[in-house]
Amino acid sequence: MPTEARTGGDQTPVIEFRDVEKRFGDNVVLKDLNFTVARGERVTLIGPSGSGKTTILRLVMTLEELTGGYIYVDGEPLSHEDRDGKRVPVSKSQQKRLRTRIGMVFQQFNLFPNMTVLENIIEAPVHVLGMSKRDATDKAHRLLEQVGLPDKANAHPTSLSGGQQQRVAIARALAMDPEILLLDEVTSALDPEVVGDVLEILREVAETTNVTMLIVTHEMGFARDVSHRVMMFDGGRVIEDGPPEKIFSHPEHERTQQFLSAVLRD
């Protein structure tokens, strides 16, 4: 697995966090957070529960609102911008346009139970991207083949196993041709025997596309295999950042050593 992102000639980060702060009431989850993700780079966030990892993904997906600071997608402000020295919200149209470049696979699948598998997959391409229903349907069938569910197009999510639902959720995210794919603990709600199947699909996506990935996972083997970079979080801060072979084999920070020792032992 290569250890350098496939950035091409464009050096503008696909994702940039600049002085980001996120509070929930008096609880400061993220404080003065600064990092970038290059085009085609796959970055995995590791760390204990409550360290702010999922909040980062939800901020990029605009499911949570920034308390302070800025997030940029391809150099454009995602939710707030600096205008004449004042921090102000961007237009809804700009946020919506940037959001179409971002896909997310959630821990709990988040499929629409009243829709068939096919309807779940084509909903956003048709109504957000303006794709024709025929083209979206053809693409959905190709994606269902890719995730190993070619015969489930007319099934409803409630009739599927957890592993099958998560594979549908991956197909739904890929149907939007995202520039950025966010993966939030995508195997944590699954039975252990199906985790490998889901991770194998994501490995294939990583190896056959140039999609930028921001990943939150406790599957350390998967993180080591697919990541160009691993960032260790604790208390809403990045305490260590480097290639997977360094973070997993020679971590420098004592907290990283403690965390990995506990996780790998489990």
From TrEMBL:
Keywords, sorted A to Z: Amino-acid transport, ATP-binding, Cell membrane, Membrane, Nucleotide-binding, Transport
UniProt gene name: ehuA
Q: Does the keyword Nucleotide-binding apply?
A: yes
Q: Where in the cell is it found?
A: Cell membrane
Please name the SUPFAM superfamilies in this protein's record. Answer: P-loop containing nucleoside triphosphate hydrolases
Organism ancestry: Bacteria, Bacillati, Actinomycetota, Actinomycetes, Micrococcales
Please name the NCBIfam families in this protein's record: ectoine_ehuA
Entry membrane topology: Peripheral membrane protein
The protein here is known as Ectoine/hydroxyectoine ABC transporter ATP-binding protein EhuA
